[in-house]
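Thread: 2-acetamido-2-deoxy-beta-D-glucopyranose complex, take 2
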Amino acid sequence: MMSLTHHHLLFPCCLLLLLVRLSGASGVSPWQLITPSVPGRLVFPPPPSVPAENATLEYMDPTLPPLLPAHNPKCSLLVLQYNFADTVGAPPVAANYTPPPDCPAPWSRVVLELSASASGLQKDRIAALWLDGAEILPPTTPYPMAPGVFWRVRKDVTRYTALLRGRSPYEGDQPCVLSMMLENSNAKYPGVYSVNVSLHFYRGALCSGGRCIGLKPAGETKRAELGPALSAHPTIKGIYREPADMIIPISNGDGRKGFWFRLENETEVQGTTVRLPNNTYRAVLEVYVSHHGDDEYWYANPLRTNGPEAEGLQPQQGGDNRLESSKANGGFRQVVATVDGRYVGSAIPFPVIYPGSVNPFFWAPVAAIGAYDHPSYDLDLTPFVGHLIDGAPHVFGLAVRDSQPFWLVSANLHVWVDAWSDTVEGALVRYKVPPFRLSRQADWTEREGKSEIEGQVIIRFSGWVSSSKGNITTSVRHKIKFKSHIEAEEKGEMTSVELESKARTNIRIEREDQVIGRVAVETETPLTMATMSSNGGGGSRFHKTKLAHALMETRSVAENKGTSFSAVADRQDSEGAVLMEEGVAMWGNGDTKSVYKYRDDKGCYLRTVNVVGGKVKEDEDTASCAAAAVAES
Ligand SMILES: *[C@@H]1O[C@H](CO)[C@@H](O)[C@H](O)[C@H]1NC(C)=O
Ligand SMILES: *[C@@H]1O[C@H](CO)[C@@H](O)[C@H](O)[C@H]1NC(C)=O
Ligand SMILES: *[C@@H]1O[C@H](CO)[C@@H](O)[C@H](O)[C@H]1NC(C)=O
Ligand SMILES: *[C@@H]1O[C@H](CO)[C@@H](O)[C@H](O)[C@H]1NC(C)=O
Ligand SMILES: *[C@@H]1O[C@H](CO)[C@@H](O)[C@H](O)[C@H]1NC(C)=O
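Output below.
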């Protein structure tokens, strides 16, 4: 993925480019060029022709469109419209935002819609959206390998209601500001990204007559009715339960280079000083992270404790930094949040694969999981509220353990305040944070070997907060289990990456020794990737990759007699080959099968998208739980 710094901007492949190159190769058949240098070892079938390029190709993220009421939005607002041409080094684009006067808060749902198109070829770019400095969408752009690519991201942003309400007269009469950054360069490519950002506001029942309707983009006839009511989108379930009263950005207030903090190494902690309202009774920290530069492939980074100074594998000629990161410090990263220097929560980041990573042909036109809307990580800080409301300023910090340059991080502190009292008090009564010890084993000789990082930790804290809602004790138990196995054979030409990461958060809410609520969130994110590489000739490298990746999450909430449950299983299997030259895909092909399954206490949704050689061969969705159950088995 293109970093924010301005370095090599090269053309993605088109057949034309390759043919020109090959025809210059004096009588050598194209396939000989990509035949491995060791005869008789790896033999690849002749690659099929590059998929036909069409000017109206949708790049998509086959997840659940936010389910909406059966009626139209009460109102829709186009907040920002901009053409991002040559924006390197430019500050984010800003637009004033005030909620539509004809449909004031509260809303039963708010959906953000980002629709964008690329005028021509481009690389994938880093982008993000902030509302008053609070990150609300950290997307990546696709890697448009044909002119006229467009895509759309729809995200349930109901949990940002406190920001979307705009400012009250007490808070000054300045409107809120929606900022968007998309650092594009026209140094080599003329490709311009045209972006529209809209908000759709809904009021009233979320579903009518037991049926909901998905947001139907113009011209789309499929995916209309989605069967039984799905009452809530997964993102509002779980730890939030309801939108917060206030959202405090833990971000870089300067904002001229975006509101992220940029972390350059594992020791760096960046953050903001915040003074919380003294009637706060609940707090959740939502953390956003993205990995770039030397850590673009952190999940495939080998660990080398022996060998030449535990250094990274030297990039081969034409290398494209997949197992060749600058430091071979292993495939483990942990995002850690601190308050006044003390650990308050962490997450193993989901290894988002960028549209230009591994094999760009895998992700055209279907995005890798989370690429257009990275997952965020919710940390319940309620046990610390007693400490946070002492009237003193507190430093909220973010760090990424074992990281290399660079990570972009920020967080939103969601705060619930007790309108009925200004004498909330509380205390942390239990804090058990053992160090996350990892066993790290490595055995390498030159370019071959294997390494493993493994560990698990259980963290517990609990605290009480006494407010008009009673004296409530919140106990958090967080378990993380992690394993990374990376292996290279055949002088580094055969590599395999296996990552297993599991997390479970259990929250128990008690009043007067009686349990009044329980929340459980469980995630599992397996990744396996096997690559065979060979010399592609002319300084290029040929990689044949098989990849399986999934994001599985279940959330359950039991509170005040009510219970809710939701489960998402988003899985992709890809296979194909790519010819890389200086980090750029010169030629390739890929098949990707995506299966997205959503189930909650009211219904099911299953979408299967099958892309073969860059063409969508199957795109089916159903609200049948029976079909979802079949897909499960
Ligand atoms: C490109 O798209 C247009 C309109 O959607 C369609 O008519 C045409 O057949 C497509 N061309 C190819 C080569 O797929
Ligand atoms: C943005 O909206 C305008 C209409 O307001 C429309 O003409 C244009 O095609 C839209 N662009 C994208 C990328 O959706
Ligand atoms: C980490 O990065 C920061 C900011 O760039 C720098 O000041 C610090 O010296 C670095 N630390 C190490 C150990 O490299
Ligand atoms: C909380 O803040 C309010 C307004 O700032 C103030 O009036 C009140 O005395 C404070 N309460 C406590 C317990 O500090
Ligand atoms: C709230 O409950 C905790 C634990 O049960 C107790 O230690 C604390 O004193 C109580 N606080 C108030 C204000 O009653």
